Amino acid sequence: MNAQDVYKFLYQSAFGCAHFAPSVQAAQAAVQTEYDRMQPVETDIEPLDGPFCRVPLGLLRKGLEAETLAKLFCLSAKTQAGKAQFERLLSAALQQAKQGALPFPAAALEKTFLSYAKAGYPPAHHSDAYRAAYRPAYRVIERRFLPFLPLFARLDRLLQKGPVIAAIDGGSASGKTELAALLQTLYGCTVFHTDDFFLQPQQRTPERYAEPGGNMDRERFLEEVLRPLKARKSVAYRRFSCKTMTLEAPTTVFPEKLTVVEGTYALHPDLAGYYDLSVFLEIDPQLQRERLSRRESSESLHRFTSVWIPLEQAYFDALCVPQRCDMQIQATP
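The structure assignment produced for this chain is given below.
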C-alpha cells in the first residue's frame, strides 16, 4: 500500500461508490464478469473510515448472488459524506504521517494528495504494487448492510430451489420492519405485518393475554395468510384498524417468489412450521429504549415498557423463540 492507495481508501471512506453508480443490470454484469475471472483469494470484509466497507467478491462463493451484491452497491451509491469530510480525512492522515503514526512518508502523501487536489479530487485506481500483492476484487457498500449479508446469501440459495416464505421475529424497535422493507427493495417480495393482526376487542381477555404469544390473532393469520401462501394461492386478508378497532375490508395479494412475514409473534409454534426460513433480531435493552424514545411519545413509551415489551419477553422465553430460529442477528446502533 502506498500514497495512491491511501488516497483511494480515504476517497472511498468519504464518497463510497457514488462516483460509479451504473444501473443494477450493468453493476451485476460487472460483478459477475470480475468474479468469473478472479483468482481465488481469501480476504475479509474491510471497514473504511466512514459509513462504508469493502466487501470481497469471494462472498459469492458462499451463496450471495451477483445481483444482490449489485443492488446493495447501487443502494450504497446514494450515500456520501462529501468533499468537506474528504478533505478532513486527508488532513488527518497527513498529520498522523508527520507524527510517525502511519507507515507512509509524509512527503509522499502530501505530494500525492496535492496532485489529486489540483485535478479536482478524481477517483483513483489501486497502485500496481497493491494489485500485485492483494489482487483486490471487491465492491464498496454501506456498513449498515453487513449484519444481513449471511441472510441475503441464505435467501439467494433458497430462492434457487423455489418459492420461499421467510419470517422475521424480534423485540420492539429491533429493526424488523426496516429489514422487511430492505428485502422488498432487494427482492421485490411480498410483505405481511403481524401488527395487522392485533386481537379484536372480544378476544382481549385476561386468559388470552396470559398465553405466551397470545397478543396476536394467530388463528386468523393462519387461515387468511399462511395456509393460502403455502398452497401458492392468492391471499385475501383483513387488516385490523387500531383507529376503529374493527377489521378493514379484505385486501387481495398475489404473492411473489419470496414472501416475508415480519413482526413479533410471527414465530409462534402454531405458525413456525409454515416458514422456509426464520430470523430473530436481537436488541440490547438500552438500545431498544433509545430507539423507542426517539419514535414514541412519553405516553406510548410507557405503554411499551410496562405492557408490550413484558408480553414479548414472556413469549420469547416461554416458547424459546430465538433458539428455534434458523438465524439470529444482533441489532446495531
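Interim note for the steering committee: The radius of gyration is 24 Å. The mean pLDDT is 94.
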